[in-house]
Amino acid sequence: MAKRSVNFKGNPLTLLGNELKEGEKAPSFKAMSNGLAPVHLSDYAGKVVVLATVPSLDTPVCDLETRRFNSEAAQLGAGVQIVTASMDLPFAQGRWCGAAGVDRVQTLSDHKDADLGQKYGVLIEELRLLARAVFVIDKDGIVRHAQIVPDITEQPNYDTVLAAVKRLL
Questions:
Q1: pTM for the complete prediction?
Q2: C-beta of residue 85 within 8 angstroms of C-beta of residue 53
Q3: Which residues in the chain come in under a pLDDT of 50?
Q4: What is the pLDDT of residue 1?
Q5: In sequence order, what are the residues at sequence separation of 6 or more whose Cβ sits closer than 8 angstroms to the Cβ of residue 71?
Q6: Residue 159 CB neighbour total at 10 angstroms
Q7: Which of 22, 27, 41, 78 has its CA 20 to 30 A from that of 53?
Q8: In terms of Cα–Cα distance, which of 127, 135, 119, 115 is closest to 152?
Q9: Pick from 105, 107, 82, 104: nearest CA to 93
Q10: Which domains does the chain show, CATH number per domain?
């Protein structure tokens, strides 16, 4: 298997796990809610899922991205669930959501097992953080859009993510 990487300010970092491609079945995962409950992909069955992974909500780009998806969620309707996962502790995520007024995006913590990061191929070996990526998963659990941002200090392409979601509605 070829090594995959992303950059952090131009410096390469190794991604662990297999690359997830469009058309593949989205892997099941186990992460943790802000209330410490286990959350699985199957919890969103019947919905289009926008799964964003970010290094940390406490960084400017991650903050901006999650707020942007929170505002977009209002226009997408109840058939879409937007999830942002990071390695932040659930308590920190809950505090951040409250301070940022984020109430339409569900934040998940992958800190315990890095299960989501490994299964989606976005776990950064050197930092044990998640790379910046966005996956759009259809109601049948198939990945319809996969975007790993080449440098984790940059934002994803929101237009392509939102276009992929709207094609599924």
A1: 0.97
A2: yes
A3: none
A4: 56
A5: none
A6: 8
A7: 78
A8: 127
A9: 107
A10: 26-168 (3.40.30.10)
Q: Give the pLDDT score at 6.
A: 97
CB 69 within 8 A of CB 97: no
Helices 158-168 and 60-76 sit at what angle, rounded to 10 degrees?
Answer: 30
Measure the CA–CA gap between 151 and 26, rounded to whole angstroms.
Answer: 23
Instruction: Mention every residue, 6+ apart, whose C-beta is less than 8 A from residue 133.
Output: 52, 53, 120, 122, 146, 147, 148, 149, 156
Spell out the alpha helix ranges (H) of 6-157: 60-76, 90-100, 115-119
Q: Are 18 and 25 in contact (CB under 8 A)?
A: no
How many whole angstroms separate alpha carbon 5 and alpha carbon 21? 15
62 given a catalytic annotation:
yes
**Active-site residue among 62, 87, 114, 123?**
62
**Which alpha helices (H) appear in the chain, and where do they start and end?**
60-76, 90-100, 115-119, 158-168
Q: With contact defined as beta carbons under 8 Å apart, do 96 and 118 qualify?
A: no
